[in-house]
Specification:
Macro_dom-like; O-acetyl-ADP-ribose deacetylase activity; 5 helices; 172 residues; Leucine Aminopeptidase, subunit E, domain 1; RNase III inhibitor; binds adenosine-5'-diphosphate; 41% helix; alpha/beta; Macro_dom
Length: 172
C-alpha cells in the first residue's frame, strides 16, 4: 500500500484531519448513515451553513467548516444511487472523488478522509466503489504534492476487505 493512502476502521467523525468527506444527499440538509453521524458530531452550526448552499447536484462537492468536529472542514459530496450500473453511476462516483480532491487541492489541504461514498443506503457495490476510490486517490496524490495523507474509513469488516482488495488490484 502506498504510504500516503491508509485504510482506517471506525467512525469518520473522530478523525482530526483537514477535511472529512460527507456522503450527503442532494439537499445537503442531513440524513441517515454517515451524513447523520457527521451532523450530530458537528452540531447545528453545520446544518445552518449547509442551508446557505442551496443543495448540491449528484457528482459535485461543496465545502463547509467542521464546527465541533475534530476535522477542520467537511467536503460534502453527493454520490449516485445504484440502479444497476448503466445509468452513469461509475462516472458520477468518480466525479465525486475528483471534485473532493479538487477542493482539497484548491484549499491546500494535507489530509482528507473519505467514507465509502454511495455504498450504504445508495447500494453501490462495495468493491467496485472502492476501486474507483483507490484509483482517484492515486491520481490525486500523483499530481498534488501538498496532499500528504488520504484516509479511507472502513465502517465494517466487509468494507475493510473491499478496500484491501481494491489496493491489491490497483497495484498489480
Ligand atoms: P450513501 O447514501 O452515500 O450510501 P451512507 O451513509 O448510507 O451513504 O453510507 C456510506 C458509507 O458510510 C457506508 O459504507 C456506511 O457503512 C459508512 N458509514 C456509516 N456511518 C459511518 C461513520 N460514522 N463513519 C464512517 N463511515 C460510515
Amino acid at each position: 500500500m502506498p504510504e500516503r493512502i491508509e485504510i482506517v476502521t471506525g467512525d469518520i467523525t473522530r478523525l482530526a484531519v483537514d477535511a472529512i468527506v460527507n456522503a450527503a444527499s442532494s439537499s445537503l440538509l442531513g440524513g441517515g448513515g454517515v451524513d447523520g453521524a457527521i451532523h450530530r458530531a458537528a452540531g447545528p452550526e453545520l446544518l445552518a451553513e449547509c442551508r446557505t448552499l442551496n443543495g448540491c447536484p449528484t457528482g459535485e462537492a461543496r465545502l463547509t467548516k467542521g464546527y465541533r468536529l475534530p476535522a477542520r472542514h467537511v467536503i460534502h459530496t453527493v454520490g449516485p444511487v445504484w440502479h444497476g450500473g448503466k445509468q452513469g453511476e461509475p462516472e458520477l462516483l468518480r466525479s465525486c472523488y475528483r471534485n473532493c480532491f479538487a477542493i482539497a487541492r484548491q484549499q491546500g489541504f494535507s489530509s482528507v478522509a473519505f467514507p465509502a461514498i454511495s455504498t450504504g443506503v445508495y447500494r453501490y457495490p462495495l468493491l467496485e466503489a472502492c476501486r474507483i476510490a483507490v484509483e482517484e486517490a492515486r491520481a490525486a496524490l500523483a499530481e498534488n504534492p501538498k496532499l500528504k495523507k488520504v484516509y479511507f474509513v472502513a465502517f465494517s469488516d466487509e468494507a475493510q476487505r473491499a478496500y484491501q482488495d481494491a489496493f491489491q488490484e490497483v497495484r498489480s
